[in-house]
Write a structure and sequence with these properties.
This protein has about 450 residues and is of the alpha/beta class. It has 2 domains: about 180 residues, Aspartate Aminotransferase, domain 1 (Alpha-Beta Complex); about 250 residues, 3-Layer(aba) Sandwich (Aspartate Aminotransferase, domain 2), CATH 3.40.640. It is built from 16 helices and 16 strands. The strands form 6 sheets. The chain has a 5-stranded mixed beta sheet with strand order 2-8-7-6-5, with helices on both faces. Strand 5, helix 7 and strand 6 form a beta-alpha-beta unit. Helix 1 crosses helix 14. The chain binds ligand F0G. The site of ligand F0G has 15 residues, from helix 4 and helix 5.
Length: about 450
């Protein structure tokens, strides 16, 4: 087989700024060792997130010009609605400015004290929006999904037995809906199988609990199903996506991922009453239901992006380019979550910096060193992001895994950028014994990783 190539050529470029190691050391200090506080201009290769960082296509940019900015009933809304409905089969399509806005609306309707929301793994904003209402967010990932070096096809699957026991214990009446996050971002970008979605739905049906998909990486998930699940090899991505959504009663979507845009999202529902309530909140917080926090041009770009994301040449290149980085690291024995996920490589910081305890935030130490040495910005997905304090003992309850995510923006970096990233990771790994732990000196009560300040130990 020949080399899998980028299925596009480059029409417009954006220069990146080179800095010296001494400059980066200063930048790190000024940013209190938190990558979110580093000015983007001081970053050489930005792997902080794959969200809102995609390169748009010429057709998407043409759509930006062509967008209809009418307040009500915009032509761009109808194109967007048709694209989303075509893929999801869901009835009511409500645009929001990004994924968390859809979450906020949904959970402010169905959440509240005494309620529970199960998920394979909540993403941080999803968890925060559930908990903000007083409800409890519960992660019920299969055990295999928590073992970074175990190789399996669908490590994002919901633990269906655990879900059933949970429903029995807490009572179906206290569970307004159950979510499945595809792919499982917080658990290594691992996919969920069609069988698992189908079986989860079958169980929930018994209890009349609706199933919602957190669908922001639906196309990457669909591609993994096509490649790995028996019976799907000859189905198109659109057919697979339609089947996944056919088991769902609704979804939240951050269009900043698999709709290839820089801003946007939506909430899609089948329940008319819920849709009416959601639109009423939307008007207060986001905007009129035919734009909901977005410009007409954004809706146009999302509609176009949803057509492009299901292209198999694109998905083949996308998944292969992430795997390519993974292979380079595995070959050098760098511990990563295996197999590589859909949108990112996750370093296993527990084994990478095994001399540091969770209280010393090994993931954050690696994040800082990748920047110091190579100007690469990444993010910790471990005890900084998901750790909790036990108020009675003043000790940290660590996250299940200590990971560092190298998220790959869509259509942005070339193979030589990725070769450079691998070289820097290998160098940090070779000198891993010199990595120093950190302590948090300042933090917010929720989503602390975005703004926390650190000091090197
Ligand atoms: N759900 C998942 C699984 C996500 O990964 C994200 C965002 C959201 C919901 C929220 O969407 O950002 O549009 O409000 N993830 C980004 C990331 C921020 O870096 O993984 P949003």
């Amino acid at each position: 087989m020949k080399t899998i190539i980028e299925p596009f050529k480059i029409k417009s470029i954006e220069p990146i700024k080179f800095t010296t190691q001494a400059e980066r050391e200063e930048v790190l200090q000024r940013a209190f060792y938190n990558p979110f506080l580093i000015p983007a201009d001081d970053v050489l290769i930005d792997l902080l997130t794959d969200s809102g960082t995609s390169a748009m296509s010429a057709k998407q940019w043409a759509g930006i010009m062509d967008g209809d900015e009418s307040y009500a009933g915009s032509r761009s809304f109808f194109r967007f609605e048709k694209a989303v409905r075509g893929l999801t089969g869901l009835k009511y399509i409500i645009p929001t400015h990004q994924g968390r806005a859809a979450e906020k609306i949904l959970f402010s309707i169905v959440g509240g004290p005494g309620k529970y929301i199960p998920n394979n793994t909540h993403f941080d904003t999803t968890r925060a929006n559930v908990e903000f209402t007083g409800a409890e967010a519960v992660d019920l990932l299969i055990e295999d999904g928590k073992k970074p070096d175990l190789i399996a096809d669908f490590k994002g699957n919901m633990d269906i037995q655990a879900l059933e026991s949970f429903i029995e214990k807490r009572g179906a009446e206290n569970i307004p809906l159950c979510m499945i996050t595809i792919t499982n971002n917080s658990g290594g970008g691992q996919p969920v199988s069609m069988a698992n979605i189908r079986e989860t739905k079958a169980l929930l049906r018994k209890y009349s609990i609706p199933l919602f998909l957190d669908a922001c990486r639906f196309a990457e998930n669909a591609f993994f199903i096509k490649k790995r699940e028996p019976g799907y090899a000859n189905k198109s991505i659109v057919e697979i996506a339609r089947e996944m959504f056919s088991y769902a009663d609704g979804c939240t979507m951050s269009a900043k991922k698999d709709a290839l845009v820089n801003m946007g999202g939506f909430l899609a529902l089948n329940d008319a009453e819920l849709a009416t309530k959601a639109r009423n909140i939307l008007i207060v917080t986001e905007g009129f239901p035919t734009y909901g926090g977005l410009a007409g041009r954004d809706l146009e770009a999302i509609a176009q992006g949803l057509e492009e994301i299901v292209d198999e040449h694109y998905l083949t290149y996308r998944i292969r380019s992430v795997e390519y980085l993974g292979e380079k690291l595995i070959k050098a024995n760098v511990p990563i979550v295996r197999p590589p996920g859909g949108h990112a490589i996750y370093l296993d910081a527990k084994r990478f910096a095994s001399h540091l305890s969770p209280e010393q935030y090994p993931g954050q130490a690696i994040v800082c060193e990748l920047y110091r040495l190579g100007g690469i910005r990444t993010v910790e997905i471990g005890s900084v992001m998901f750790g909790r304090y036990d108020k009675s003992t003043h000790t940290l309850i660590p996250a299940a895994m200590e990971l560092v995510r190298l998220a790959i923006p869509r259509r942005v970096y070339t193979q030589s950028h990725i070769d450079y990233v691998a070289e820097v990771v290998l160098e940090v790994y070779a000198n891993r014994n010199t990595l120093k732990g950190l302590v948090i000196t300042e933090e917010a009560p929720m989503l602390r990783h975005f703004t926390a300040k650190f000091r090197v130990l």
